[in-house]
Every structure is written in C-alpha cells, then in structure tokens.
Amino acid sequence: MKPSILTLLAAAAGSHGLSIPAFDLQPRQSCDNTATSRSCWGDYSIDTNYYDETPDTGNTVEYWLSVEEGLCSPDGYQRTCMTFNGTVPGPTIFADWGDNLIIHVTNNMTVNGTAIHWHGLRQLNSTLHDGVPGVSQCPIAPGESFTYSFRVTQYGSTWYHSHFSLQYAEGLFGALTLNGPATADYDEDLGTLFLQDWSHIEAFTRWDSARQGPPPTLETGLINGTNTWTCATAGDANCVGSGAKFETVFEAGKKYRLRLINVAVEGVFQFSIDGHSLTVIGTDLVPIVPYTADSVQITIGQRYDVIVEASADAGDYWLRAGWVSACATNSNPDGMTGIVRYDSSSTADPTSTSNVTASTTCYDEPLASLVPHLALDVTNIPTITTEDLSFKVDTYFKWTVNTTSLLLDWANPTMLQVVSGEDVFPTDYNVVAVQPAGSAAEWAVLVIQDQAGLGLSHPIHLHGHDFWVLAQTTGVFNGSVDSFNTANPPRRDVATLPGNGYLALAFQLDNPGAWLCHCHIAWHASQGLSLEFVESQADIILADADQTVLNDTCSAWSTWDGTAVWPQDDSGI
C-alpha cells in the first residue's frame, strides 16, 4: 500500500439553519476529548449543532489513491479484484471534524472507468465532488486522475467506494473515519469493522445472470476483508489457503469503540459478540442517545458506532456477523465470524455460544431506539412527493421508480447539463426538481411506496443530505401526515423500505446540487432502482476551476470511451 501524505492548509464553510426544539444541552465550554470526556471537542462538543456550525481547524488532509486491478485471496480463495493502493479494503482515510479533505484518485485500470463516492458526506456546496458517474461527473478514464476536495462538516464513521456499476463489489472500497465527539465515553477506538458478503466469481461475470432473474447466491462473507474457506473441490488451483479469521484483543475492564459498516452486495447482518452487550452511540453520521442491545441489525450502506466493555471472564469469544437469511441467500451463512481474545497469545478457537435470537426480518433497528442526541423537529411539512417502486422486464429485469428505470449516460452527467443551462433532463435520468418556496417549503418530503408485490426490502440511500425518518412500515400510505413522527425522528442517510410497505423521509433544502437517491443492493442499483434530485438549480454555482475539471474529465472520458472494450450495460451506478 502506498503511504498517505498529510499536509496542512486552511478551509471554511457554513450551512443552513434548522428548527430546534427546546432540549437540555450544555453551554459551550472548551475541553479536551479524552477517555473520560468523549463529549468534548475543544471549543465545540457533542451539543454543537453541526448542521449550522463547523470547527475551523485550519487543516487540510491530503491522500493519494490508485485504483488498480489485481489478484486477491481474502478468505484463501484467489480471484481477480479491484483495489485501492493494492489492498482490499483500501487504506483508511482519517480526518477531523472541520478539516478540508483532498483526495487524488488515479485510475490505473486498463478497461474500466471509475468514480469514487464519499458515502454519507453532505458535500455542502461541493456537489461536483460527490463521485457519481452520470450525475456529478463523467467517469475517470483509464490513465486519468480526478482530485476530490471538500470540507468535513460531519463526524463519525463512514466509507468511500466506487459508484461505477458493480465495482465496489469487486473490493473497491475503504474506511473514512471522521474524528469528533461522542455520546458516551470509551478507552480505545478499535476502528472500522467492515461486514460484507463475498463472491468467488467476479460480480461483473455474475451480472449476466443477475440481470435476467433472481440474484445469485454468493459463496461466503468477510469481516474486515478476511475469513477462512474450505475448498470443496480437491486440486482447485484458486484455493491458495491463506485465509484467516479477523481477531482483536480486549483488556479486561476497558471500553472499546467499534465502527460497524455493512458494505455487502445484498446482505443484511446481525452483529454480536458472545458474552458481551453493545452500547450503540451513532447511526450513520448522527450521534444518538446511547442504548444497549445484545445485537445490532445493519443493512447495506448503514453504519453503527458501538461501545463494548470487556467485562466477560477471560477467554476467547466469537464475534459474529450473523447472516439474516430472510433478506438474501448465502452459501456460508454461519461462517462469518471473527474472534475476540482476552489473551493475545491464545490461538484456540472459541467455544462460546450466542444468546442472541436470530433475526427473521429485514428491518432496521427499532426507530424508537434511534434517538438523535441533537434534537431537531420537522416543521411545516410541504407537498409530499410519492414515488411508487415496481419493476418491468424488457431486455432484462429492471426496477422502476414511478415507472422509470434509471439509465444514465456517463458522457453527459446531470451536472454537465446543469452548468450548460439545461432545465429539462432526459426521462431516463428520473430527475425530481426540488427547491424552497418560502418557509413552508424548506423541507422536501419523499414517500417511497413498494408496489412491486415481491415482498423485498430495499436499503434506500440519499446523497447530499441526512434525512429524517418520518415513517417506516408495511401497508399502503394513505396520503395523510398523521402517521408521521415529526418530533426529533431518527436521522440518517440509509433506511430500509419495508417489503410491501412504505418509507417516508424528510430532508432540508439547504444544499443546492444533483443528489442521487437509490437502493444500495448492488444488483438493484444496476437494475435502475434510483431517482435523482436536482435541488435549487438556480443556486448551483461551480467555481471556474471546478467547471474546468468537469469539462476536462468528460473530454478525456469521451476520447477513451470511443475505444472501450466493454460498453455500458446497466444503469451506470
């Protein structure tokens, strides 16, 4: 892995105000963030309204990422992968709340474009850097580079990944850790734990069958990019036997922070550690009032920050990424495990057992548990946009939102049309225009109703915003707001649309740009389950330098695309 390089410069930005109800927050006091004062952050704290206020650190953190193709064997079974700087997962990017991040991405692949999305980041006033081909930019052509630059206005745990077709399923993702305050104290941050399903056959190879019918069954899963695999076929040359279980060591009495991220193609996990409880302190990039649970259910794209106290008897314990079979199939549903040891010299397999009741549904954690620490109500609900989810079959199975299946032209992204003055977009782009029209319309409210009749749940991710979860239930939305919870409802950027039900979301119209809203099941995104919001188009302003980058990237892509071996054969995302 090539080393990351950090430099120091300066940056600043602001954001739109929110309606804040009365709640018990403490006056600002300057204090250090330590094991016994995690709520502190210098002159800021866990009580700071981070939508309105961001520290001015005066720091710029700079990284270089090389997108490459190569062989990998994360579970001992060798296959072709896509990597950042030669590793799966890619290197962790660290920054502090208020820093400016600059990431230089070079596409060193030979037959694929790419674009890198910084999952969950608001990209306040930096829509061009959201990293979605066909929306915010043209793909980065082989041999070309793109520099992403944005202010860190949030803190917590997230990830970066390719948003070009199925590339993140091939290994093209990494952790993005944004340091800031927390709602509970802990002694040590153990960093990110990636939970994922894993295929021994390239996702692009499996796309041919996935697009025609039911999704394929993947072979296994990984925890932080590693697991073991027992080959069923003697003499299989790809079975190189270098896999290992993820392991970590606890010291009795200490409290550890874990940053759980689901980066699966289609799987939902029920995370637990035998003999230990979890204190949940964050959902996506939103600090919450801590609650305790034996397990946490996490769908694709979601993040949960949890604290685990090393209070069990000394020994070895299974750490479990429990596969929720109600949501997808897998050939190794019980084998996605790691190990927590209290003695670093131990090499024994744990004999611990789980007392967790296995989940039989594809739901998120209960909404009542996900109470944001910073209490913000939804006020003045405007006209509700209702989108019906269904499907159609023509050349292949396609998901539709309001009868349209997303199909983007990589060479003509939405932002290129915006800066060219276009305000009527191609039907296949599935654009919904939103803009504030006075105080009563400072919110956009979206209701997605599952009309497909297949009973499948969908993790819905919105770019450019946190959203407030107003309702999430089975049944048919009747058009009334009576079912909406508007009093400090859960906020996040990924929530599950229940099968045969509806999901109601609200977000503030405070970030002009082009923002994708899509299912994060990789097959479904490729099959067009998406729409995009063009927000406050008249207020989208690109600096001259950004316009030059947009034009140059598209020019390089168009030149290369004329000689491309593989044509676009999915939605583009």
From TrEMBL:
Keyword line: Copper, Glycoprotein, Metal-binding, Oxidoreductase, Repeat, Signal
Domain (Plastocyanin-like): residue spans on this chain: 67-181, 192-343, 412-537
Signal peptide: 1-17
Pfam families on file: Cu-oxidase, Cu-oxidase_2, Cu-oxidase_3
One function term, GO molecular function aspect: oxidoreductase activity
InterPro entries: Cu-oxidase-like_N, Cu-oxidase_2nd, Cu-oxidase_C, Cu-oxidase_fam, Cu_oxidase_Cu_BS, Cupredoxin
Superkingdom of the organism of origin: Eukaryota
SUPFAM superfamilies linked: Cupredoxins
Family: Belongs to the multicopper oxidase family.
PANTHER family from the UniProt entry: MULTI-COPPER OXIDASE (PTHR11709), OXIDOREDUCTASE TPCJ (PTHR11709:SF71)
Protein name: Laccase
Organism: Lasiosphaeria miniovina
